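Why does residue order matter? Because the sequence determines the fold. Keep that principle in mind as you read this record.
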Amino acid sequence: MSPFSRSLTLFCGRIAAVRCHSSLTAELIENMDKKATWDRFYTESSSSSRTATFKNFEWFFGFDAVRDFIMPLLRTEPHPDGVLRVLDVGCGTSALGPSIYRHSPLPVQVTCADISPIAVRLMQEQIQAKDIQPHNRSSRLEFVELDCTLLHEHYGSRSVDLIVDKGTTDALLRSKEGRRKAGLMLTQCLKALRSSGSLLQFSDEDPDVRLLWLETEARESGVMAADVGVQETGTPPCAFQVSTTLLLIQRLGTKRGATAERHSRTWPPFKALKT
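Structure:
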């Protein structure tokens, strides 16, 4: 069992102990590409803790563990409209997007998108209750229900500066019918990125396997070439002790971010996706 599935099993086990829905774990692992599955997941998790304080559920790790990977990518000159656009794709109930909103010194428009309206509603309620304030007064935060394979319905071409994928591609690739959707999401993300934009994938998959998949999907879909770098994030201090890797995907011809320069443990070296 992979670390991703193990963390999912442990979390669902806590839900099942309270709600006696032992089938939830198996359903999730096999159908993580389905909206109905995630609706059930967030319904069960929220109802099991209804009397307790809401707690964000983080795949792999929270914002603090990867802050130094993410924030340097936002230290660029703002666009003419003055706002950097950030997308947390498949956000669930993670605090990653809100944390970027809170800590970015530059103005950002952070969109936290998930296929489950239950997750979106839970996060909207929590943000309203906590009254989270941004570091920059011009920053904005929104939560939207959105299928990650249909990003073109919400974003135009070359309109996003940073896309963060923390386990969403992993979930799709591990599903029985999710590989095609994972490829569609990658294509949509690359098309939505600005010429200076970056896509960050956090994954517990073997980096060589993920790189091969990225190269194959880029070649078959015909999307423009991009630089891909692999960074080891190691094992952050989190409940599940999941060892993960970071894949930094940027368009060819763009300057690599400070993340790639600062963290020297890379394998393999930055390489091009051939299209």
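The chain has two domains: 3-48, 63-272.
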